[in-house]
Amino acid sequence: MISNGKGNQVMRIGSLRGSAITAAILLFGMLSSGAQTGPYQPKFHGDPAHSEAESAALGYMRVVLRAQREYKKRHDKFATSLPALAGTGTFTKRMARSMDRGDYTASFHSKKEGFVLTMIPKQYDDQHRAFYAEDDGVIRGEEGKPATADSPKVK
Questions:
Q1: What is the mean pLDDT of the chain?
Q2: Beta partners for 107?
Q3: DSSP letters of 44-82?
Q4: Whole-prediction pTM value?
Q5: C-alpha torsion angle, residues 90, 152, 100, 54 (rounded to 10)
Q6: How many domains does the chain have?
Q7: Domain coverage including residue 11
Q8: Which residue has the higher pLDDT, 134 or 37?
């Protein structure tokens, strides 16, 4: 804004052009950021996830399963809790602190010779299946209900 000498404020045309360019750059940045605008893009060959939320849930499960395998090699038994597993492999204390995993809630239960890990979506739909894994390392999934040991393997 500049004064035209008569006490009125006027805007230069160049300022409008600059504002339009700035707005276009911001819009492009928002569109090209991580916001998912189309169908889910698999993260690797054979990725079984149907959405970003499922990808994160399955990734968390894989980290826990790998850490449990490594823990068992070191201690000849599985960890009995997630805090006990923290610091093994890439499983961190921060990951062990909260069962809230975005669109999912994690659950870990120790049993006599193993463990059960589940990921339950906060809302069931075609982009949020439930997942289940035991000490055998096989991830199983279900649509519309909690997954169990009898659920089909996630492929």
A1: 86
A2: 118
A3: STT---SSHHHHHHHHHHHHHHHHHHHHHHHHSS--SSH
A4: 0.75
A5: 80
A6: 2
A7: 2-32
A8: 134
Q: Establish if 101 belongs to a structural domain.
A: yes
Q: Is 20 within a domain? A: yes
Say if residue 21 is in the same domain as residue 69. no
Cβ 100 vs Cβ 53: under 8 Å: no
**Domain identity same for 132 and 98:** yes
Please indicate, yes or no, if residue 43 is contained in any of the structural domains. Answer: no
Same structural domain, 23 and 77: no
Mean pLDDT value across residues 52-73: 97
The C-alpha angle 137, 51, 134, rounded to 5 degrees, equals 15
Residue 19's H or E segment, with its range, is: helix 13-32
Residue 152, in any domain of the structure = no
Report which residue type is found at 131. Answer: F
pLDDT tens string 72-123? 999 999 999 999 999 999 999 999 999 999 999 999 999 989 999 999 999 9
**Same-domain status, 121 and 58:** yes
**DSSP per position, 73-136:** HHHSS--SSHHHHTTSTT--HHHHH-SEETTEEEEEEEETTEEEEEEEESS-BTTB-EEEEETT
